């Protein structure tokens, strides 16, 4: 089994920590964030779609002691009562068709019931950021067609500016405390052509948005991070194996040094067996008597005769 001791080196420890931390963030934070937004957007779109085809109902049919149920958001209701024209607030930092705007909030006392905040619509600022003059809410008893909305969270404290109480969120508890009314949780958003209505705030688009695909992408990134780490570890192991194999081949391929008294054979010379003719020639040469080198012996044997 391949030793993985090199993984304890600082470089590999940092790489492993980064990959695992990124995968953890993908699975625990980034993917749930996008998938949660997709779930909430889908639920909102379903409520809007159902409210479009539903007939408006009296507000008393869905009103509870704690305000409006979450499942009834965007539902169309009919409410009869009167505006509290002296207790108004503007919601700043709103965007309508990509333009900065103010939304006008006026308390509305329901006949025989509690007080609810009404979003009368929007107005566009003048001279940069100053709220414009706008029509006040009508006095006396009126009947409104509106949609139920859930309260927004609070972010910053209300301020007094340009002669108006200005807030950053539509929160009935915060606005009610600022203007001196006891408003129920949730608020109403006026439909088109209603008493006291200003610029109509249109319904949001009911497309699901890119949140699901973003969530799946973060899940894929979370899977790819440890797989990428495993790929680099495997590549490092393979490289180390190749390096050791090349070193072993280099060491085993060196020739042994030849002794000083023995000639080194020529590796390129090819060895062949002698033929029959060569064998017979060698045998005849071996059977001949050796001619003496002494001249007297040669004369004795008749060589010089």
Automatic annotation (TrEMBL):
It comes from Rhodococcus ruber. This is SURF1-like protein. Keywords: Cell membrane, Membrane, Transmembrane, Transmembrane helix. The chain crosses the membrane at residues 12-35, 211-233. PROSITE patterns: SURF1 (PS50895). Belongs to the SURF1 family. InterPro entries: Surf1/Shy1 (IPR002994), Surf1/Surf4 (IPR045214). The keyword Zinc does not apply. It is found in: Cell membrane; Membrane.
């Amino acid at each position: 089994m391949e030793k993985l001791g090199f993984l304890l080196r600082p470089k590999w420890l940092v790489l492993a920590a980064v990959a695992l931390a990124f995968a953890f963030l993908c699975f625990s934070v980034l993917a749930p964030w996008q998938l949660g937004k997709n779930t909430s957007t889908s639920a909102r779109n379903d409520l809007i779609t159902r409210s479009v085809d539903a007939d408006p109902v009296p507000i008393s049919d869905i009103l509870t002691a704690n305000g409006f149920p979450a499942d009834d958001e965007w539902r169309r209701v009919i409410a009869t009562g009167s505006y509290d024209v002296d207790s108004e607030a503007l919601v700043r930092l709103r965007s309508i068709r990509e333009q900065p705007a103010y939304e006008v909030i006026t308390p509305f006392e329901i006949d025989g019931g509690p007080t609810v905040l009404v979003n009368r619509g929007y107005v566009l600022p003048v001279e940069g950021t100053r709220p414009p003059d706008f029509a006040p809410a009508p006095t006396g008893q009126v009947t409104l067609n509106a949609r139920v909305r859930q309260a927004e969270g609070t972010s910053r404290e209300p301020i007094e500016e340009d002669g108006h109480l200005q807030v950053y969120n539509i929160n009935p508890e915060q606005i009610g405390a600022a203007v001196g009314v006891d408003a129920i949780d949730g608020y109403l958003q006026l439909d088109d052509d209603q008493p006291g209505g200003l610029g109509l705030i249109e319904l949001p688009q009911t497309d699901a948005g890119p949140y699901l695909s973003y969530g799946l992408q973060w899940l894929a990134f979370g899977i790819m991070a440890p797989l990428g780490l495993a790929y680099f570890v495997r590549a490092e192991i393979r490289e180390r194996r190749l390096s050791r194999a090349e070193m072993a081949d280099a060491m085993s391929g060196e020739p042994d040094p030849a002794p000083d008294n023995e000639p080194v054979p020529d590796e390129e010379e090819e060895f062949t067996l002698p033929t029959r003719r060569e064998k017979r020639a060698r045998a005849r040469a071996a059977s001949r008597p050796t001619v003496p080198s002494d001249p007297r012996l040669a004369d004795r044997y008749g060589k010089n005769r």
